[in-house]
């Protein structure tokens, strides 16, 4: 297999990190090891200032940085501003990184899932069906007990069968489950410790006593696939978003230790209330993934994606499909809630089919299964973005969900939209496309005003995004092009914003398609363009010329009008 052009013109990471004598790839390495040879083919620098060097006093990309002239000395020596570098020494700006040790454990299947395995063993335990195992269908027998921290509201005879039930004739409360809380059965034998006795030694925290998610009335930035990356969330935090959530992560990919999937879990230190969203179709992978994250990353809550409408996810039984698979849905929620120390939330849609709403039937079950909060997107899977969100139905579901908090989501693009949503009786609002079109919406809602933001202010936001992107993805060629890609994805939404000063009547509605218009200056007109070539032009103003034969096609149709 011949090395491609990119590999032949890229400097080996071992040289960049000052370990040239010990190449990671050995004789198989296809990258360059001679710095002079690399500099001869390296593309021209994109600017004189390196954001990493100016912020942290050191650029870890050295000669490969596309702004290297800012920190290269004689003989391509990487200059370090020691005073500035010391200020950042030992500080962790981005958390939830995947370590090599953990990745190896996952790849070799050596990670221990004690609680999940115990739950799944009980789930598969046969009881009264001829030894074929639990099919999760039908009703439990009278008198059998569902080990949950809160008693079910309905008569057990009318409740769906739960996987934890004992066999007929078996004591419904074995010795290991003497406590009313199933977590106690998973604790195992006590660990011998030394030192003074603390409250934690005597009193165990039960799942029903786990930390509550106190976010009622806060502004929640939705988990946004592709566009809801860490640099974008930093922008939204700056404008007033209270709660942020990582992009949807596929649980099977996380369990395999895929670096690209684990990158979706990263948390910036400014994200004070942060959660991650998981997608999966089966209780084994979802419960194991929840236990994995509970042990290895820092989050304030975990969200289950039961709203994803795309065919790839739906046909595998995940996303919206879980709304039609109530037994699997129940097993997933109960299992994840059991192994997590943080609150579990669920995001759903009104239903799958356009005119058949089912969320009001599912929400009481979600509450009973142990979820701390539910978020309802006011559209069905079939509707996608072709109709306006049904806020009357969201209000109806908010009453049904009580006392469990319910956040509403859909079509919020102004503070008036937000005010109307709050008056519907929801516990809070989640903002998705509205934040992509105008991330300053959080400021508008908190200050109750329309912000006639200038084109120069908007361009400064894009500058900040590119700086955050270079900081997050890197300032080498690879990092620059990744930053450009995500900038262009975001620009496909930003172009839909209509400046307040040009509107005939306020506020702008999210699905209104404006006629072609001229802005108040060149940059404002350029930003309003629906043409991909103009988006590329904006990216070139910030990140220099695009590579030869560069093309871009927006990944999502969510940026389109109805």
UniProtKB/TrEMBL annotation:
Signal peptide: none
Cofactor: FMN
EC number: 1.3.1.-
Transferase as UniProt keyword: no
Reactions catalysed, as given in the entry: 5,6-dihydrouridine(47) in tRNA + NAD(+) = uridine(47) in tRNA + NADH + H(+); a 5,6-dihydrouridine in mRNA + NAD(+) = a uridine in mRNA + NADH + H(+); a 5,6-dihydrouridine in mRNA + NADP(+) = a uridine in mRNA + NADPH + H(+); 5,6-dihydrouridine(47) in tRNA + NADP(+) = uridine(47) in tRNA + NADPH + H(+)
Zinc finger (C3H1-type) boundaries: 6-36
Any one GO molecular function term: tRNA-dihydrouridine47 synthase activity
Main enzyme class: oxidoreductase
Biological role: Catalyzes the synthesis of dihydrouridine, a modified base, in various RNAs, such as tRNAs, mRNAs and some long non-coding RNAs (lncRNAs). Mainly modifies the uridine in position 47 (U47) in the D-loop of most cytoplasmic tRNAs. Also able to mediate the formation of dihydrouridine in some mRNAs, thereby regulating their translation.
Protein's name according to its UniProt entry: tRNA-dihydrouridine(47) synthase [NAD(P)(+)]
Native source species: Apteryx owenii
